[in-house]
Specification:
Layout: E1 5-7, E2 25-30, H1 34-49, E3 53-54, E4 63-68, H2 73-89, E5 94-99, H3 100-104, H4 106-112, E6 117-119, H5 127-135, E7 140-142, E8 161-168, H6 179-182, E9 187-188, H7 191-203, E10 208-213, H8 229-239, E11 245-248, H9 253-256, H10 260-267, E12 275-277, H11 285-291, H12 297-310, E13 315-322, H13 329-342, E14 346-351, H14 368-391, E15 397-405, E16 411-415, E17 421-425, E18 434-438, E19 441-442, E20 447-448, E21 453-454
Parallel strand pairs: 2-3, 2-4, 4-5, 5-6, 6-7, 8-10, 10-11, 12-13, 13-14, 17-20
Antiparallel strand pairs: 1-7, 8-9, 15-16, 15-18, 16-17, 18-21, 19-20
């Protein structure tokens, strides 16, 4: 990988601490989205191939790795507090800090952990070099470069789920987004590499394949022949046999629109969840213009209609930011009306968070009290709509694929064909299998049942 790197002088007190003997245990903490999780998997894979063993507690580790996120201020603050605490409690450990916060705010991370090696997201393959530098009393700082998409490590399966990064980077220039600082250049893995890893994962027991990226709608624009997302999903379905389901990740509306019909044709295969993650961000055209989103509300509605006309029961998940600079009360109520009209099955609602190096940071800000009030109002409406949608399932017998343990103790999550989650009592034998269950209860977020039976 081509990386601009910096190896700094010897760190006082670190040189020779292990007398040339490499560390063999590591601890890993991950913050942020599925891309961050994927990058953490790459680092873990590289370390374990070299003989390192992962431990559950930082105090048991020789090397502490923290993979960071930069998307929100509160997340940045939580990471900063954690790094300070770790360094205070365990000052003699070796630290590698990686991820989006390293690329977007390297000065901040360097101040928090001045002795750490730093790796941008595109440099996570260099984790062994970073550790080796620390072993010799130095630190490796790699803040630039291109992601190496020529190969992909074997991907771990969590319960019955495997996450596959298919691309990184975007073509947009959103006014609020700091992620573009950390993951700007579009780099796509080839269909061949992705198909090979998906096939291998399915053979090892994966039943849910999560295709993720910064914006999966721009997959392939950098590859020869420019295969798009529809081509990739079709290739997986054609070349990977087995009883599995594909969940497609976040797609920006304007980028997916030109080939939406082809993608919907691919979605007809039962092995694709009828799930679409299409962020709208605002229901007001003027705010969308300020955000530098390249579509209008009417264009978004047209995409929504095209999906629902083909798959009426599809889950359409969206992202909405309240309190972005330029959002008036009138603009906010336009967003409320859009939510009430389209009745999204799932809404990721966030208050605008000021981020450095973004255009929106220099704009006149909406007061925090106003953002909180708008979030409260819209959050209540989102919950009411979600509950109404999910209550339709109560009393029905549904078929679900059990994919993972639930965060609720003693339970597991199954997924309907449209990715609606149903919470079931945990049974190891059911993991990765189809079950039938009668829906007994619904929340705005999920369905619930106290019993199930294997599906034929």
């Amino acid at each position: 990988m081509e990386c601009a790197e910096k190896v700094e002088a010897e760190i006082p007190g670190q040189a020779g601490r292990r007398a040339g003997k490499p560390s063999r245990t590591y601890y890993l903490e991950v913050y942020g989205c599925s891309l961050s999780e994927f990058d953490a998997l790459i680092m873990a894979s590289r370390l374990e191939e070299a003989g390192y063993r992962r431990v559950a507690r930082p105090e048991d580790a020789d090397v502490i790795l923290v993979n960071t996120c930069a998307v929100r201020l509160d997340t940045e603050q939580r990471i900063a507090e954690r790094l300070e605490k770790l360094r205070l409690q365990l000052p003699d450990r070796k630290y590698v800090v990686a991820g989006c916060l390293v690329k977007a705010r390297p000065g901040l991370v360097a101040r928090l952990v001045p002795e750490a090696s730093l790796l941008a997201p595109q440099a996570v393959e260099r984790v062994l070099d970073a550790v080796d530098a620390l072993e010799s009393g130095r630190r490796l700082v790699v803040l630039d470069g291109r992601r190496d998409t020529r190969s992909m490590p074997q991907l771990p399966i969590t319960d019955a789920v495997v996450t596959v990064m298919i691309q990184e980077g975007c073509l947009g220039d959103c006014s609020f987004c700091i992620t573009k600082v950390a993951r700007r250049q579009v780099r796509s893995y080839s269909p061949r590499v992705i198909v090979e890893r998906v096939r291998e994962a399915v053979e090892r027991g994966a039943r849910e394949i999560r295709l993720t990226g910064t914006d999966v709608a721009v997959y392939g624009v950098d590859l020869p022949g420019k295969p798009n997302l529809a081509d990739l999903v079709a290739a997986i379905l054609e070349k990977v046999e087995g009883d599995y389901r594909i969940r497609v990740g976040m797609m920006t509306p304007d980028q997916v629109e030109p080939y939406l019909d082809s993608l919907l044709d691919v979605y007809k295969d039962e092995r694709v969840y009828k799930y679409f993650h299409l962020p709208v961000q605002s229901g007001d055209d003027e705010v969308l213009k300020i955000m530098k989103r390249n579509y209008t509300v009417s264009e978004y509605k047209a995409i929504h209609r095209r999906i629902k006309s083909r798959f009426p029961d599809a889950m359409i998940a969206t992202d909405i930011i309240v309190g972005h600079p330029g959002e008036t009360w009138e603009a906010f109520w336009n967003t409320v009306r859009l939510v009430e009209e389209l009745r999204f099955e799932k809404v990721h609602l966030a208050q605008y968070s000021l981020r450095p190096h973004t255009e929106a940071a220099s704009m006149e800000q909406v007061p925090d009290s106003v953002k909180k009030e708008r979030s409260r109002i819209l959050g209540k409406i989102v919950a009411e709509i979600g509950l109404e949608i999910n209550r339709r399932y109560v009393g029905r017998r549904v078929r679900a694929l059990v994919t993972e343990r639930s965060w609720r103790e003693g339970s597991m999550t199954g997924r309907l064909d449209n990715y609606t989650p149903i919470i079931l009592p945990y049974e190891e034998r059911a993991m990765g299998r189809w079950v039938y269950a009668e829906v007994e209860e619904a929340t705005f977020f999920d369905l619930r049942s106290s019993r199930f039976e294997p599906a034929p």
